[in-house]
Each structure stands twice: as C-alpha cells, then as structure tokens.
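pinning this so it doesn't scroll away 📌
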Amino acid sequence: VFDEEDLALVAENTFGVREQTPRLKRLKRGRGRRASDDDDELRAELDDLMDTNESPGADYADEPRRDVDRDDDLGLFGNEESDAEVDDYRAARRAERRGHANSRNERLDTAYEEVRDNGVQAGAHERTGAMASFLAEGMDAIDDDTWMELQDIFGSGEEYAFAMEAPLADRDPSREKTLADVFEPAELEAKMMTQRDEDIRTSDVPERMQMRATGAESLRPLSEDEIEEETTWVMRQLHSWLTRQEARRGREHKSEWDTDNTSDEPTLFQHADFANERFLAAVLSVLKLLSQDFYEVPFIARHRREVFVTAESESDVHGEEPPTREWLSIDDLWKLYDFDLQFRGLLAARRHLQNMVRRLKGEGVDDSTREISHEDEAYASELIASASGVEDIMDVTEWLQAHYADVIQKWSRERAGMKRVQNLGLKERAKRNGTDRFVERFGITARQVGDNVSTPGRHTVDSNTSEMPLDAARELVGTELVSPDIALKAAKATFSSMLELDPQLRRFVRAYCDEHVCVVVRPTDKGLREVTHDEHPAFAFKFLKQKPVAEFMGSAQFIELEKAVHDGLLRMQLSLSGEYRFDNHDLRTDDAVFSEDRDRSARAVTVQLDEHMRSSASGDVAAAWDTVRSDALFMAVRDHLLPQMWRETVQKLHQQAFDYVADACRRSLEQRIDVQAARTSSMRTGKKPRVAVVAGGGFDASSRGALRVVVVDEHGACSEDFSADSMRMQSSGALADGDGVAVLRGVLERQRIDVVA
C-alpha cells in the first residue's frame, strides 16, 4: 500500500496530477504548486535550492528570512507565511537573472557584430572571453532560462579573461598584440609563423641560404679580400680531401658492406687541376656567387653555367661552336657549398677570438687596462694566422680563457650586473698552492713543448737542477699539500693542465688521431642474445676490430653503428693500438680490456711527444725529471686530450654519415625530377611537345565540377582550357559518356597534341 508521499513521488515522475497536497512537505514548494507546473518553474526552483553562486555571508540581511524557527528543522517545514516569502524571493531572483541575461546577450550581440564586421583581431575586444568564439555555433536557438543554467554550471566565460590582459604596469596602449602573445611558441614554430619565419619571408635571399646558419655572419656578403682568402682555404682543403678520397679508394681490403655502400657514390672533381688558371677561376666565381650574391646551387648549375664552363679553344675554324669543358659538376658545386659554410664558421669563430684579444689588450680604452702580455698576444696572433679550421680557433680560445679566467669572469659579472661565484683559472690555482714555482723546475714550459712539436729542436730542456723531484717537492709542503708525494702529484697535475691546453699540442694529437684511429666494437649481454643472425643490422659490427675511421667515410655505416650502441646492443671505443685480449666466452672482462686499451692508446701518443721534452743530460737526477715530465704528459693525453679527440671524431663521423644520406636522397630526387620533356617518335631533338594536361577528380560519376583540362603549347603558354564534371567513358551505348569526353576529343581534333598527361 502506497502512502501519500509515495503517491506524490510517483505522480512527479510520471507527470501526473494530484489535487491534494500533503500537509507536511520534504521540499518546500510554492503554495498551491502542483507537480505538473511548467518545467522551467521547477528548474528555476531547483536552481534556487542548489544555488552556490553567492559568496558566503553576502547580504543575507536583505534576503527573506529562511530559518523562521530554529526548531522547525532549518525551515524546511515552514508555515504558509514563510512559503509566501520564499516564493516572492524566488520570483525576484528569476527576474534578476533574466535582467542579467538580457544585458549579457546585448553585450554578446554587440561583440558578435564587431567580429562579423571587422574580423577576428587580437585585442579587438577584451571581455568577451570564450563566449565570442561560441557565437558562431548558432546561439539564437538557446533561450534565456537554458542560457542561465549553462552559466550557472559552466560559468560565464569571464573567469579567465585576465589571461588575455597584460598587467597594468606592462600595458602599452599603442602596442598591438602579436601572435606570440596569444599562441604557444611550439605551435607557432610548427605552423612556421615565428618571427624568424617572418624574417625569412621578407628577406630577398633564398630560404636555403638563410636557414643554413644563424647569426650576423650568415647573411653578410664577404669582401673581395675574404673571397680571395676563402679560395685559398678551399683549395687547400680540397687538395687534402681529394688525397684522402684517393687513399680510401685505393685500399685493397674492403669489407663487403663497404663496397655495396660506395658503389653509387659519384667521383667528385674529376677535372680538378690546381695548376690550371681556368679551374681556379671557376672555383673563385662560384664562391663569389655563393658568398656575395647568395645564389643557390641549382640556380648556379642551370642559369650561371658560364662561370664554370669554358671553351677549349678560342678559334672557330669550321664555323661551328668550339668544344667546351665543364670544370665543375653539380656534385662539385654542392661540395663547394659545404666548404663555403665551413669557412663562414671559421670566420665567425676567428672574429670572436680577435675581439677577445683586442679587449684583453685594452684597445680603444687605455694602455693601463691591458691584461694580456705581449708574449701571449704574439703567440695568439701566430696561432690565429695558422689556423686551418674551427677546431684550431677553439683551441686558442680555450687557452686564453684558462690563462685569463679571472679577467673574463669579471667581464661576465659586469655584463650580468650580479655577483657570481668566481672560478679560479689555471694560473690562480697554481699560485695559490705554490705549484707554479715548482713547475718552473721542470726545465721546459708547455708552450716550448708545443714549439718543439711544430719545429723540432727549437727549445731544449734546462737540466741545471741537482735535486731529485721528491726532494724539491718538500718545499711545497704546507696547509694544502701535507706531504711531498701529494705536492709532487699536484705539480704533475698543474703541468699536465698546461700541456693539454696548449693549442700546438692539440693540433698534433688531432692530426695523429685522424690518421691512426680505429674503431673497436664489442657486444653487450643483450646484443649477444639478440644479434644472432646475419640479417640483423648490427650483425656486421658485432665483433668489429681495428676498423680505420677513414673506411667509414663515404657510407652510412656509422649511423647503423650508433643505433646499435644506443639500443644497448653494442659497445664502441676508439683506439690507437692493435692489441686486444677479449674473451668471447666471458664479456665481463671487456671493461678491463677497454681500460688497458685506453692506457695503450695514451702511451702511443705520449711516445710521439715525449722525445720533444726529454733532457739531453744523463744521470739519475735527469732521468727522474724526465720521468716526472713523461708522467704529466701521459696524464694530459689520457685524461684530457684523447677524450676530446674521440668526441670530435665521433661528431665528424656522425655528420659525415648524415651528409652521405642527405646527398644520396638529393641524387635520387634529381633522377626523378630532372628528366627531359616527353617526346614522340616524330619529334626532332630539342623540340618541345604540346601537352594537354587533365587533372582533378572527375573520373567517376560521383564527382561534379572537379575536372580541369589545360592545353600548353611548345612555348609554355596556355592556349585552351575548360572544366568538366566527368571524363568517364561508358562501355555500353545505353549510358552516355561524361560531359568532358566530347570536349577533349574536340580539342585533340582541332590542335596537334603530342602528349596527354
């Protein structure tokens, strides 16, 4: 049996009508209100009961008193008088909401008119928020009550309007908002709408020439003197590169995959003749077009061929054009393009170094502010003049930064305007612990060792000391160096740091490594399990031993090797020795073997340099000092020089492999697109065809108006064009052909068409 409350609940859910209302109600309704009243009234009543828009404690004194009696269950069973007050309050609230909705709709209508008339512009209106973008979806179909409910649930859209507004202190009325103020940088970069992209579009320079480098040097036309210097530098680099290429091709023992990778590689500079003035003039002219006019290689190859194609003879005996000689191919032009980019990097690094030297000299300020000594200035100038690559310039830069670290850090602090922790330079550290005085007893400086390496016999070792190294180290014992052994180790470390920073020593070690370095590869536990068949990409490198780095040139092998190392399948190490005692049955011994190999590689370089710092005197004292110098040199080579050379070598191999892949992709693309025009059997050589081009999607009955036919004559001009709905030909006579078939047949009958594409 249902009671009164159950019947009321059933009536409300089935939209029934009940004439009597219970005396006591769970939820307060308006007096005499029935469950079948309008849905909007019921919805507004529920909004009032669940209203959370008002802030706590806001103007409750002006609202009708809801809790008439505290003992009356918080007013839920109020009397008729309180019900009337609540009904009046709800009616007032609904009227107030309708008023706010009308005013808000008026503002949105105004904003919509502005957007429709003026277009969407950043900063055109400030307070429309997310509602302005919603206007385009058809807001007229939403009534006021539904609109109020949406705002009560989701908000008015103005809660985050502050995100589109700049702080009051940063607002500039005259400044318009840009795309960077509204969109994320990653999104702008993906759409190519950054300021960099805009600069590329507005600059009258090909995009490739702007994208190949950044900075002030990238788009600066080189002067005539710089072009002459670049030509000399390119010729020197080209001669060295061709020598290495010939040595690589002349190797008798090549691996199988190396032969496959280099079979399609073109031979560059087949007509290179360094004694021929025409070849030199062709290279100079191409470099001018690249560095001064910023022409692209395809443009030079097709439209400026006169700069690298010359006639074999000036006389025309038979009345025909003399034979010509093409000094440079398009592959040669791309190689010169790479050389030009490298030379610009060299110019930028050298300019930065020269500015540093001038500032250390105090040039343009005062002679009293001079920080660099005249001897160091002359040494730096000599090294800059003989630098042949960016690596040599960076060596001189690091040498200056280490010797004048306190001055350079002072510049950084002045520029930043804040205090930073000062890092002591090489000289300051040596002065603090007193090892600078002990290093003077070594009988030779790091610079003199470098001079002896570049010019053997230039300096000799001063062996006038009669004390053993350990006895001389007792003078350094103090608060920082507590024993002679520790003092001697600190002195070795100081001299080792001086040796590894010397630019001439670095240049020698770099050249020695480029000639003798090899790659050693060992599998990991994971690689031993997974790389088990010859179809695996890493199988060819699984047990690679003593493969010269030069054999990686002209192929993409190093990319595959790097991928295997990155996946944890292989371990790779560069080496200068040929002794490997690996145990293929126990990979746990590989770490010890690799460590021994690093020591042997360092010892191989030390032997080459040790003779330039060995004393000519005999005796136990001279032998002891030779041992100390040799130990310091070994530390410099093992801990500093070789790791740096290995990083540079890996970077070169990585870049060379990517260049090889990019060049192969370029040649493949050129083979696809660089073809002659279509020819028929009746056409003479050199004659261009007349083409009818049919394009679009009108080859079936479902497409309408999507077909376009254009007739192009032998001069490249459009002689006739039309559009059609379909070009479909019917096999049976019951169905008509497409409307474009007859028109195209008429064109083919009227005009002489060689090719239909």
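📌 and the second one:
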Amino acid sequence: MYDHAIPHDWHGQYPLTDLSRWKLLDLPDELGDHNWVYTCEGSKQRTLEKFWIGAPYKAATLPKATDALEAAKNGYTFYKNLQAPDGHWPGEYSGPHFLTPGYVIGSYVTKAPIKEEERLEMIRYLFLTANPEDGGWGIHVEGKSTVFGTGLNYVTLRLLGVDAEHPVMIKARGTLHKLGGACRIPAWGKFWLSVLNVYDWEGVNPVPPELWLLPEWLPIHPYRWWIHTRNVYIPMSYLYGVRYRATENGLIRALRQELYPEPYHSIDWPAQRNNVAEGDIYAPHTYTLNGLFAILGAYEGCALPPLRRAGLDYVYKLVVMEDENSDYQDLGPVNKMMNMVVRHHADGPESHAFKEHVRRRQDFLWLGPKGMMMCGTNGSQLWDITFICQALVKTGLGELKENKKSMMAALGWLDKAQMQSNPVHFESAYRQATKGAWPFSTKTQGYTVSDCAAEGMKAVLFLQENIPVEKRPISEKRLCDTVDILLGMQNSSGGWSSYEPRRGPLLLEYINPSEVFGDIMIDVDYPECTTSAITGLAIFRKNYPHYRTKDIEAAMGRAIKYIHAAQDPCGGWFGRWGICFTYATMFALESLSLVGETYSNSKAAKKACDFIVSKQREDGGWGESWETCEKLVWIEHEESQVVQTAWSGLALMYAQYPHREPLEKAVKLIMSRQLPDGSWAQEAIEGVFNKTVAIAYPNFKFSFTIWMLGRAHRYLQTLAR
C-alpha cells in the first residue's frame, strides 16, 4: 500500500524525508494559508522554513545587548527573518494528540490519499512524541498517557503502514492494554473507532440528529451550545444516525484483535457506553447526562424512520452551509474531517464538495522539528501578527527605518484579513455576524472571535496612528464595523465570550458529554477576551471620539465590574487560553489600568501584583505548569519560562508596580536566554483550551519577550526618575 516500510530499528531518530526539500508555499491570494510541499531537489529554502523544521540556518550574530531595548531590537532583527512575503508570521499551532488521528482515519475511510512524504513525517512525529517511559500518548504532547491518546494514535500509526510488531507499536499496545484497552476510550474516541469499524456503534452513547429538530426556544437546543461543540456534534450526529462504517478489510480485522485485551466478538458493546478509563476522565457523567442518555437510548430503540430522515437532512444542510461559509476549511480540524466523511457519504467521492475537502486538508498540516502534525485550526495567523505589531509600536522599534517595510507588510496583511461581510449562510447557519471582525487565523476560515477582532483593531490603530503611512488602508468606516461587532458581543455579565455572546444557561455544562474537556457546552466569559475587547474599544475611542462614545463607556464600566468579580481569591485571574494565572493576570491588569486602577490605589491591582511577585523564582523568571489549567491551582513548572516571565513583567508594568527589583530580575532572565542571533529557544507549551488540552503558540517567544523588554527599558528609566 505504501512505498516505504518502516524499519524496526527506526524510532524516529532521523527523518525519512529530505528536509531540505520542504517548502512553505507563498500562495497568490496572500491570505495566509499554510501549505507545506515537498519540492524537487535543489529548491532553495529560506530561513523561515529552516527555522520551523529545526534545520541549520544562517543568521547574523548580533552585537551582545547591553540593555533591554537593545535585546528587544535584536529579537526583532531576527524575527523579521520569519515573516512571510505577504506580511504575516507563519507558525505551528499544535499539541493536541487527537487531531492527527482524525486526519488519518477520515482520509482512510474515504480513500483520500496521503502523500508518501507526509505519511513518513507523521510517523516520525508520533514516534518522537510518544511517552518515553510507557510508549503511549496523552490528550496532548505534555500530558500523561491515556486511552484516548494511546488508542487513537496506535490506530493512526497502523493506518499509516507501521507494522504491529514494530517495537514502538508493541510498547504502545502494552500500555493500551494495561490501561484497559480501547473499550475504555472516551466518547470522541469511541466515535472515531466506530467510523473505522473497529468498535461497535452499540457501544456509543446516542447522538441523534433529531436533536436539531427540537424547538429553538428550548434551553437545551444545540444551537445554544459553544460553537466548537455544536460544530463537532453536527457531523457526528449524521454519521451516528446512518451508522457509518468503513468497509471491513484485513487491517480492520487485525486492529480489532490488537486494540482489546479480550476477543472482539465477545465484547458486550452496550455495556461499554459509559466505560471510560479513570485516568481519561476530566468531566464525569452527571446524573442529568446519564438520564438524558437513557431517554435517547430508549428513543433509538424505536426511532421513527421519517423523523430520522428529517434529522439527517437538517444536519446535512448545516454541514453544507459550514463548508460553503469557510471554503471547506471549516471551524477547526475535528469538524473539518468529520464533515469530509459526511460529504463523501452523502455526495460521493467524485463530488466537488468532497474533492474540495481533500484539497483543504493541506491547510491544517504543519511540519516541525519532530515531524508533521495536524494543527488546532488552520493556524494562528491573525492572533500572532497582532501582538508583534503592538509590541513594535509600544517599544518604539516600529519607528526605526529598518523596520518600516516589515510593519507596512504586516499592515497590508491585516487589511486583507479583515472580514468585510457576513457569512453567505448567516442566521440560517446559526452564525455570529462577521462584518468588521478579524478571525483567529485567516479570512477564509471566516469566524469572528471577540479578542481577535479587538486585537486586530488595536494593531491597525497602533500602526496607522503611530507609524507614518502614505495611505491608511483600513478606513474609519471599517473600524466602526469592528466596534459594532464588539459591542454586540458583550454578555449581560459584563464579560465577553469567544465566538459569540452566551446563548445558553450555565447549567448546560451538566450535560457535557465529552468526558475529557471542561466548560465546552456554552461560550463562557473570559478575562482575556474581555480585556482585549475593552482595550480595543478604548483605543478606538481615543482616536475616533465621536462614534458610539456613550455605548463604549457603558460597556467598559460593565466589563470592569466583571473583571473585579472574576478575580481569584489567590489574587490572580484564571486563564482559559494561555497558561494560566500569569497569562490572564496580564490581561486583567491591563483592563484595570484603563480606568486608572494601579498598585498604589487599587486593592485588586495590589493583590494581583503581590500574587505575581510571590511566584517569581530566584533566577528572576516565572514558570507555571499547564496542569494549573486542569487543577485550578498554581502548579510550578520544572523550569522558568521566558514567555511567562514576559507576561508577568507586563502585568506588573500595567499596574505601575513601584519596585524595581522584580522587573530587573525578569529582564535579566529573558536577556540571558537570548541566543546570539537574537532569537530564543523553544521552551514549554504556552497555550491551553477547555482546561485539559495544551496547545503551542511558539511565536509568543518573540512577540511578548520583545514587548516586555522594550517596555521595561522605558519603565525602569521612569522609576529611576
């Protein structure tokens, strides 16, 4: 089936492809899509490609910085090498270990080809990210081995052509069996294994498409769920409703024997619906959820064919609208691959829709130092560009002649990335307005995210108002559209959610069916999103004081009340998108600074600063583990982290912390980790979502370090005066 067998003595210790042939395409539409291609021999690589794949590259050795501003300048001198010609900064956005399995299983069951070079790099990545002690995989790259991670990635490697008797597979299989076997895999794993026909649908809790036929006024209606959850359960309900199964073959029969300690045909499948390994569970079933499953199970026994058909037709329509709204990229990788299987089943392998899905898979693949993986979206393009643009303006580095071309390229990309219309399928697809917003990744993917819209507007305002430009590409009218989007997304609590204003009650979390994720049923309030929104609105009001001034002032007042209410008793704020207290506390203190609350006059700001300073280490840095997000209390990382040190330093400066020593030590730590070419080495993973899944933001080690160093240089001078 594949060109190259994987040698039993190869464990990923060297690549099986020629790394010098990999190139990141510069696409003509300049919208920022990431496509790695394997080119002909002799194709020239840039520093950009070499850096991201971990290959040796040539970069100038810079004069050693003697102060923080020089270190920031050196950092950006290097970082410009990683800017794409269209103006954005590409980068990895990976870490979850349940994404590549969806890519491979979805491709396998639909017979969508995987290129040989991609296959080899995926195998290398999974070999190198296996747990070094037990050979399993966790829910993400830094997590302990689980049935979810181990079961899905074992299957992935087998589908990619790795022999069952390869030493890596023997070790992983032993761990899987020790954990209880694939019967104990959580719900999303049970789903994918059922699609592959190595698990029986009778062992899956019901996901009937008829739920979408319920009256929309019901608090439980799926349109009220958080968008990532509902967009996954739409295609999941279709595939459950038709009991989709891959065609049985020799490999599928072999996997049925390998995944379970007991004989496959002896398994009591209905008894496995709630059989989940204890080590996998983060969100245990509630009595409410089990009661709901009992009702749905009884319904499945007597489901009416016309009602089932109506439900299938409706969710299929939603899948089609999602595909057409996003040019087949879809919201994220999980629903993207499920949608691809749906379109293959419903429209056929020769359909335009299926072929577009196959083509768009490429946008989610990233090649890193350990190999190829599927990313958490099609990238974090917009999110990354906003912070470095703000950093350059705030530090004064953007005014330097040598940086103007780079900043103008970034502004040009921001111009192209703003969404200037609502989705083609808008209210009928239960979508949030997009006119005036910026997305998390690209305009093509096309989803409004509150903090991305706000940070995008901030970056544009900073560049257009502070760096001389011949013509402002983003007009006042377009910025007013952004303001309208943001004001319309504030919740009654005063906070902002991510993709949409909250649609359902908090009690919906009682029917969280995932078992492995927290807070996935509704779009909750986030200190980070709230801060981005109100700082964006405040900066807009400063430059355009005539537009919706009273509305902005009222929204900010409600938001500050929310920020106060959200402060944790420890003094910090709990982060939902970054790790964790260091991340959210930086944002929250920026919010309080807008209304003049500082260390000297605000109990909340003083308590936060005292908390942050109490976590500083002897070496001057901060180090917070991703486990903080899971366990809701501060857990130290083994090492100080430059990114978290930058966040903590910025937090103290937002609050006008009056003591020099913590900041001086933080600056010294970040400068000591800077490499001779101005870059910083990759350290621990930076981001998180749904409390349990860590995800990488490797561009943060440039944007926030440069920002903190440049700002600290001026701030410490002010303290001296």
